[in-house]
Design brief:
single chain; alpha+beta; Endonuclease III, domain 1; Nucleoside Triphosphate Pyrophosphohydrolase; 2 domains; 17 helices; binds iron/sulfur cluster
C-alpha cells in the first residue's frame, strides 16, 4: 500500500489537489486552506525564523503542510480500538481512557487493556461507580499505578460533578484528576475538535526533524510546541494531531525513518541535511543509582503472605510480598534483617540469583528469600494470606510478579 501512497505524493501539485479533494469530501466543509500556495518557508530558515515568518500577517509559509498531512492521514491512518472511524464522532470516554493508558505505554500493550476496560465499564459513569480495587486489579500489569488511581478518581469526578459528561475545553479537562496539559490538549483536539496541538513523543520527533530544532529537550519543548501548532489545519484539529502521531509512529520512526514515504519530505530540514536520526536533540540522561533490597516469600500450604503498599508513593496501593526498603548500596545482611516475624516459621532459604527490575528513575535488584509457615499461622499486622490460585486477581505490579515467579519456580521468572 505504501508505494501507491508514495506515487500519489510525488508531485506537490498532485498532492495538494488530492488533499483538497479529500478534505472537501471527508467532512463536507470548506478546505482548511483557501489557496494551497507554495511555501515561502525556506529550508535554510532557523526554527525561530520560521515561526516568526508564520506569525507575520499575510505570510502563509506552512499552509501546504496541514493539508498534505490530512491527505496522508485520510489514506494511511491507523485503525485503533479507541479511534472513531471516518465520519463517526469521537467518544470522549474512549479518547480519555486511551490517552491515560498510553502514557508511557505502547499502543500494542494498551490494546487488550483498553478492550477489557470498555467491555466491563462501557461508559465513564460505570467506571466512576466501580471500586478502586477493581480498577487497580484490571490495570495490573500496565505499570505506573498512580495513573490507575487517577483514572478512577477522574471517572468519579466526571460522574458526580459533571453528570457523566466530560468538559469540552482544555481548562475544564485540566481541572480533573490525572489530566495534565498534554492529555487535556489531546482530548480537547481529538474528542472535541478544539484548535490545539497536543505534543507527544512522536510529534516531538517529527517536528524537531522537520524544523531541525537544535535546542535540546526538555528545554526545546516550548519551541516545539509552537512549531507543532503551525501544522494544525484550520478545521479537523483532532485529525491533524492524530496524523502527526501516526506519522511519527509509522514513518518518522526513531531509527531509519522512511522519508521517501513521508508527505512532508519536501519541506523537511533534517532530511535535507541527512541528519534525521540525530533529532530530537536530548540532554544526556542521569540514570538513577541501583537500589537493592530483599523480598520475603512466605507460603502457608497453598497460600501466600502479602500486604498492600501505602496509598501514596511508588506502586501506591498495589499488592506485594513483605520486603525490605530499597536503598542504593544496601548490604544483603541489612535487607535480610527486615524479614517479617512469624511464629513457627521454617528457616529462610535464599533463592539463587536475583530479580532485576527497572523503574523510571532507578534500577532495582532484589534478593529473594522463601520460608514455610505452619498451618493456621496468623498473618502479622497489616498482612494477609491469599490463595496462590487467586493471585491473578490481586493488583500485583510486574516487579512482584517476577519475585513470586522466581520464588515459586513459576514460568516467566526473573533475570538473574
Ligand atoms: S522527511 Fe523523514 S525526517 Fe522529515 S518528517 Fe518526514 S519522515 Fe521525518
Amino acid at each position: 500500500m505504501w508505494p501507491w501512497g508514495l506515487i500519489a505524493f510525488r508531485r506537490v501539485g498532485h498532492r495538494l489537489l488530492a488533499a483538497k479533494k479529500d478534505v472537501d469530501a471527508r467532512d463536507g466543509r470548506a478546505p482548511d486552506v483557501e489557496r494551497p500556495a507554495r511555501c515561502r518557508y525556506s529550508k535554510s530558515m532557523s526554527p525561530k525564523s520560521a515561526l516568526k515568518a508564520k506569525s507575520e500577517p499575510g505570510q502563509s509559509e506552512t499552509v501546504s503542510r496541514p493539508i498534505a498531512l490530512l491527505a496522508w492521514y485520510d489514506r494511511h491512518r491507523r485503525r485503533l480500538p479507541w479511534r472513531a472511524a471516518p465520519g463517526e464522532t469521537s467518544d470522549p470516554y474512549r479518547v480519555w481512557l486511551s490517552e491515560i493508558m498510553l502514557q508511557q505505554t505502547t499502543v500494542k500493550a494498551v490494546g487488550p487493556y483498553f478492550e477489557k476496560f470498555v467491555a466491563r465499564w462501557p461508559e465513564v459513569t460505570a467506571l466512576g461507580n466501580a471500586s478502586q480495587d477493581d480498577v487497580l486489579r484490571m490495570w495490573a500489569g500496565l505499570g505506573y499505578y498512580s495513573r490507575a488511581r487517577n483514572l478512577h478518581a477522574c471517572a468519579v469526578a466526571v460522574t458526580r460533578q459533571h453528570g457523566g459528561v466530560f468538559p469540552d475545553t482544555e481548562e475544564g479537562l485540566r481541572a480533573l484528576p490525572g489530566i495534565g496539559p498534554y492529555t487535556a490538549a489531546a482530548i480537547a483536539a481529538i474528542a472535541f475538535d478544539r484548535h490545539t496541538m497536543p505534543v507527544d513523543g512522536n510529534i516531538e520527533r517529527v517536528v524537531s526533524r522537520l524544523f531541525a530544532v537544535e535546542e535540546e529537550l526538555p528545554q526545546a519543548k516550548p519551541l516545539i510546541q509552537q512549531l507543532a501548532a503551525t501544522l494544525l489545519a484550520n478545521s479537523r484539529a483532532g485529525d491533524s494531531a492524530q496524523a502527526l502521531m501516526d506519522l511519527g509512529a509509522s514513518i518518522c520512526t526513531p531509527k531509519k525513518p522512511a522519508c521517501s514515504l513521508c508527505p512532508l519530505n519536501e519541506d523537511c530540514k533534517a532530511r535535507t541535511l541527512g541528519t534525521q536520526e540525530t533529532f530530537p536533540r536530548k540532554a544526556p540522561k542521569k540514570g538513577g543509582a541501583l537500589r537493592r533490597g530483599a523480598a520475603f516469600v512466605v507460603t502457608r500450604g497453598d497460600e501466600l503472605l502479602v500486604r498492600s503498599r501505602p496509598e501514596k508513593g511508588l506502586l501506591g496501593g498495589m499488592t506485594e510480598v513483605p520486603g525490605s526498603n530499597w536503598l542504593a548500596g544496601q548490604e544483603d545482611a541489612t535487607a535480610r534483617q527486615q524479614a517479617p516475624d512469624l511464629k513457627g516459621l521454617s528457616r529462610w532459604q535464599r533463592k539463587v540469583g536475583v530479580v532485576n527490575h527497572v523503574f523510571t528513575h532507578f534500577p532495582l535488584e532484589l534478593v529473594v528469600y522463601t520460608a514455610k509457615a505452619q498451618p493456621r499461622t496468623r498473618a502479622p499486622a497489616g498482612m494477609r494470606w491469599v490463595p496462590i490460585a487467586t493471585l491473578a486477581d490481586e493488583a500485583l505490579p510486574n516487579v512482584m510478579r517476577k519475585v513470586i515467579a522466581h520464588a515459586l519456580n513459576l514460568p516467566s521468572g526473573p533475570s538473574s
